[in-house]
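Lecture 7 notes: from sequence to structure.
We start with the chain below.
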Amino acid sequence: MEEVVIVGASIVGLATAVALKKVGIRMLVLERSKELRVTGVALGLHPNAWLALNALGVSDKLVPLYDPFHKIGGPPRAVHRRVLSEVLAEELPPNTIRFSSKITFIETQVEQGSSICVVTLDDGTIIKSKAVVGCDGVHSVGHGLDHGCTFQQFVDVGKRAGFVTLNDKEIYWFFLGECPLKGMENGVDPEMIQKEVSENLAKYFLPVYLDVVKRIDLSSLTWAPLMFRYPWDVLFGNLA
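Predicted structure tokens for the same chain:
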């Protein structure tokens, strides 16, 4: 069993792994890409970030490569994202990062009286761990982790969804999105809402959420637009 599984070899994921290594905690980093992934070219790092990198023991490898914003010699500095990722990865023991590891499901189980995390990969591999840390950004499967609570939430760009157990027979689920559902101009059709959410808007969310959507009682399904109101309009009664 792993002590900690980190989902995503992002800059945050790699920094988390190096920090755990510093305190003697063994970890495994699961990355869905075939190699270190980098989004964007450069990253501006301010004093607090350099303090963190210094604590991780990597700042001395970066400072000589980049000039500070101001020629007076102090931070902040901008660094290449790829260089930062590679410097962090070099601090980890061999085989700490497992590439081409696409996660399909994460759940908690009780084993010998203790709660553990069980990670399932798309090739059928099962990895057990004492803890899972999600560092794979907006497409994170880690947003849906169940830590013994009855509430699970899933987040993507412009989307937020989740469900909460009401009792042993009922579950309340929701989906929020910036774009309106297709066909709403012709009225609210529960079957159409269910299909649009499960097959389009939330198709990349965890199977546990999609399973809830597919099993719903259509008679209880509703849709409504949300209206944004500025706080000062609410305070002063300008609600027209």
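Points to note: Residues 143-149 have pLDDT under 50 and may be disordered. The longest strand covers residues 103-111.
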